[in-house]
Write a structure and sequence with these properties.
By secondary structure, the chain is an alpha/beta fold. It has 2 domains: 129 residues, 3-Layer(aba) Sandwich (Rossmann fold); 160 residues, 3-Layer(aba) Sandwich (Rossmann fold). Helix content is 43%, strand content 14%. The strands form 2 sheets. It has a 7-stranded mixed beta sheet, with helices on both faces. Strands 1, 2, 3, 4 and 5 form a 5-stranded mixed beta sheet that branches. It is globular.
């Protein structure tokens, strides 16, 4: 039974939650298909590769493959990589990609002297598990601790540009971090949500918490959709700022390109300092809110202060599960992170499957199309059964895993 058929078979909210509960139990019962620890004691190298749920990819262009990024931190554990790869299984499915979840990781400090030698050894130890070598691991990518040069080291060591996604355009990649494709997805999710309510993004005021890579990309792309930046926060800009008259093209450019010194000067000229606590931006009177900083920012204790009508999650789980029903009761629509921000893995999928000479534009186009369609499906379930968007999103993801992806 396909996901579309399952939707038609549901007759009530109660039945929706019964089926969702059954799907959640099946997902909880899944075990990793690949769980590997690689070590080289002589070099002090330890790393992990975990892959889940490649059944979703059956019959697709990457049959039997799981994908996710590569995390590099000094205290990384296999349990953390297992949790992250399992989350990627859900995220990839929510994006409607025929691609299992995976994560790789290395216990190391990527800024330490001699790291290149360790990193090259790590990727070489993982070589037998790579999809291109008959394994189920789709390859390395960017995550916490990663640096741009890692793509060049990995591809050089393995003799293949297919072994790493997110790499520069001149290596056949989409350069999705620099292009801000994940942020494009979050901005697109907001636009699709707004349009599903019969409104337009053009002219909508918005606020962004966190002006790092994700937040900068959201500012760029939602501004291109016609949004008006009215507030933003980030520690590097000394907290929260409101822009009652919007922002100048010069400030917009500085924020988007993360030209911090120029942005600091212009922010002080054009903005009104709200306070040093970056959380304060969440409570500004705007149409759209983009929490792009860290998890658990909007909680049951502060959700009543939210004034935005729409929220698109850029950070991982910035809204707690307790806050979702409170926001819905207030009439605030929230697109959860696993629906809004899979732009990175969509771009990775394009890198691994496309033969195009313009993969960046293809990845952007695919991200816009996929996320728009997914938000529309999600909001249709919300409207039909009166469920929270996060539950509708979970249903869509789990249906894709267990019933098969339906176009």
């Amino acid at each position: 039974m396909g996901a579309a058929a399952a939707d038609r078979d549901i007759q009530s909210k109660e039945e929706f939650f019964t089926i969702l509960g059954e799907l959640q139990e099946r997902f909880e019962a899944l075990k990793p298909e690949l769980e590997v620890t690689v070590r080289d004691p002589a070099l002090g190298v330890e790393g992990y590769v975990i892959v889940w749920n490649t059944g979703i990819s059956k019959g697709g262009p990457l049959d039997g493959c799981g994908k996710g990024g590569t995390r590099i931190t000094p205290n990384l554990s296999i349990d953390e990589v297992k949790m992250l790869s399992r989350t990627m299984a859900l995220k990839n499915a929510a994006a409607g990609l025929p691609l299992g979840g995976a994560k790789s990781g290395m216990r190391a400090d990527s800024s330490e002297d001699g790291f290149e030698r360790k990193y090259r050894r790590f990727v070489k130890l993982c070589q037998p598990f790579l999809y291109e070598n008959g394994g189920c691991f789709g390859g390395f990518g960017f995550d916490i601790g990663a640096q741009p040069v890692h793509a060049k080291w990995a591809c050089d060591e393995l003799g293949s540009t297919r072994s790493f996604t997110g790499k520069p355009v001149d290596m056949g990649g989409t350069d999705y971090d620099r292009e801000g494709i994940a942020g494009l997805g979050v901005a697109t999710a907001a636009k699709a949500l707004i349009e599903s309510r019969g409104e337009k993004a053009d002219g909508m005021s918005f606020a962004v918490q966190g002006a790092g890579a994700m937040g900068a990309a959201v500012i760029r792309y939602f501004s291109e959709y016609g949004g008006q930046l009215k507030a933003m926060s980030d520690p590097k800009y000394d907290g929260c700022w409101a822009f009652d008259a919007g922002v100048s093209p010069a400030l917009l450019k500085a924020l988007v390109t993360q030209d911090v010194e120029t942005a600091k000067s212009l922010v002080a000229q054009e903005g009104r300092h709200i306070g040093k606590d970056t959380q304060d931006v969440l409570f500004e009177s705007v149409d759209v809110l983009f929490p792009c900083a860290i998890h658990n920012m909007i909680t049951e204790t502060n959700s009543y202060q939210i004034k935005a009508r729409y929220i698109s999650e850029g950070a991982n789980q910035p809204v707690t599960k307790e806050a979702y029903p409170m926001l819905m009761e207030k009439g605030i629509h929230v697109i959860p992170d696993f629906i809004a921000n899979p732009g990175g893995v969509i771009a990775a999928f394009v890198e691994l499957t496309s033969q195009s000479d313009s993969k960046v534009e293809e990845a952007k186009s695919y991200t816009i199309s996929k996320i728009t369609d997914n938000v529309n499906k999600l909001m249709a379930l919300v409207d039909r059964f009166g469920v929270e968007p996060v539950h509708a999103g979970q249903y869509l993801a789990l249906s894709n895993i267990f019933y098969g992806i339906q176009d």
